[in-house]
Specification:
five-stranded antiparallel β-sheet; alpha+beta; Uridine Diphospho-n-acetylenolpyruvylglucosamine Reductase, domain 3; single chain; 3 domains
Length: 418
Amino acid sequence: MTEDGAPLHAALRGFFSDATPDHLPDHLAVAISGGSDSLALLSLCHAWRQDGGPRISAVTVDHGLRPTSAQEAADVGTLCAQLDIPHDTLHWTRAQPGGNLQDQARRARYAIMAGWAATKGVDVIALGHTLDDQAETFLMRLARGAGLDGLSAMRDRWQDGAVQFVRPLLTCRREALRDHLTGQSLSWVEDSTNTDPTYDRARVRAALPELGIAMDTLSDVAGHLAQARDALHAVTLQAAREIARVDRGDVILDHAGFCALHPDLSRRLLLSAMRWINGADYPPRGKAMAAVQADCVAGRRAVLQGCDISHAKGQIRITREAAAVATLTTNPDELWDGRWRLRGPNILNARVCALGEAGLRHCPDRALAGFPARSLIATPAVWQGRKLIAAPVAQLANGWTAELVPRARGDFAADIAH
């Protein structure tokens, strides 16, 4: 370890020892693209491994969005072989055109890496985001008119199923990482999009020197906002424990209690409940959310982002919208709608699909479920062609069970139960 690189090594090791002093990761993977930030992270982790640190692997996701991406992934593989670090290249093919390509690629990258980690026994995947990324992201979101949550600091860790994603270098400057690489005689790939003015980040990166605002200052502001966000989350969670309950796959809110909350708290509570039901990565647009919030107060039915919100007997019921799951289908024992798992006898050509109105008519004991028809038709059932085999939630079990599985990010049901 060089004297100049000592602060970087200390930042990496301190990140893990401060967070989990009694349990460092057994198997740490580094997500590496070949750019300076991820390459420096790999170098630092390699040095840590040589000094008694965890087992290291590396993974690259080739999105195929640049002509040189395959060669860049191959070059990373060559470097990893020289360092005796196992390396895998994963591939993503865009499912359908339209939408935000960069955002689609980012979400796919995390999902693909999480799946890869499960097969490799990887506990933690480290990402090479830096303090510069923190500052740039803050300004990008500010330009888009983001609120408190959007302007809050990037998360330094989050759980996705059995794997944890971490950003151990968020307090480090990109310049320091590049100095480290130069000292190690390691060269990195320059992503052409970093200087392409058609991309928001490239424009922000170019404008930052002209603003005269230190990176550390922007990062500190984002950190302060994150503390405010966390405080609001704690208050919202307490409110949820007082006025919310879970009924199988639905969330029920006390209407009077909901109306008595500060509007920002009621909005956050409603968003948390909806996200638990629909699994959406992003909240609805502000105007749409405000309209549904007003509908909840007024006792009107509303449908938004795959959630059906109705009112009865002083309660607000949030359920899955039937239309949102009408075409979903999986094999038994696989996750359906990202949160249900059905298990039962081995039946040839059995598929899990929504019960639907047609299926509900074949559930003679459905009233015993004590569950509204609007909710039941959006629950999973087992079908063999057009023949209904089982609908456990609608009291047609036939040897089958339906289990609600916690989503990877945030389990509303577990949170309000504590």
